[in-house]
């Protein structure tokens, strides 16, 4: 009985970690897209092509 509970607990932990990693992956994608949009908007509003990165 104890072994069955241990196996069920391990299965729950593995599936829980899988869900968390999947959620963190999508959060990372959203952050990268927002960062790229910020860089693009800054480049456009700066008035020069290349914006912040050229001196």
**H/E element string?**
H
Per DSSP, the total helix count is 1
Q: Rough shape?
A: rod-shaped
Count of extended strands: 0
- Alpha-beta classification: mainly alpha
End-to-end gap:
69 Å
What is the strand content? Answer: under 5%
Overall average pLDDT: 85
Q: What does the largest sheet look like? A: none
Helix content: over 70%
Low-confidence stretches: none
Q: How big is the Rg?
A: 22 Å
Protein name: Hydrophobic protein
Organism: Streptomyces hebeiensis
Transmembrane segments: 26-45
Keywords: Membrane, Transmembrane, Transmembrane helix
Structure notes:
This protein has one helix at residues 2-46. The protein has a domain at 22-55. It is rod-shaped. The protein contains one helix and no strands. The protein is mainly α. Keywords: Membrane, Transmembrane, Transmembrane helix. This is Hydrophobic protein. The chain crosses the membrane at residues 26-45.
Could you write a compact summary of the structure shown?
This protein is mainly alpha-helical and 55 residues long.
Give the helices and strands, then pairings:
Layout: H1 2-46
Relevant terms:
single chain; 55 residues; mainly alpha
């Amino acid at each position: 009985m104890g072994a069955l509970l241990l196996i069920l607990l391990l299965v729950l932990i593995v599936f829980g970690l899988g869900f968390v990693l999947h959620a963190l992956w999508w959060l990372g994608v959203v952050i990268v897209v927002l960062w790229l949009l910020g860089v693009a908007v800054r480049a456009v509003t700066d008035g020069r092509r290349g914006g912040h990165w050229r001196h």
